[in-house]
Amino acid sequence: QVQLVESGGGVVQAGGSLRLSCSAFGRRFSDYGMGWFRQAPGKEREFVAALNWNGHNTYYADAVKGRFTISRDNAKAMVYLQMNTLKLDDTAIYYCASRPVGYVPTRPQSIDFDAWGQGIQVTVSS
Length: 126
Known about the structure:
126 residues, mainly beta, 47% strand, globular
């Protein structure tokens, strides 16, 4: 069983940047794909970004493409989400997630991931 812990959230002005981190504990980190999802108030959880076991394949939601970058450090068992040019619509609780296998489908969905962090708030202010 894997445990995921997010950090790095907070309040930032529109146009600013934040970097989320996710620490993984449990099964061997380098064996599985990772992703980030988010849930805004009154909305369903949505996919943000994901990458495969070695970080060579990355996937992004259209809403964040070109602004967000997902990466991982297998030696540290960490996955990151660098968020630039933040918009008001990026305000949400962000969740780190892991898959039981190393590859990630082209259009990841929540059901593709079997472990979740507790979530961390990101608030973008005007």
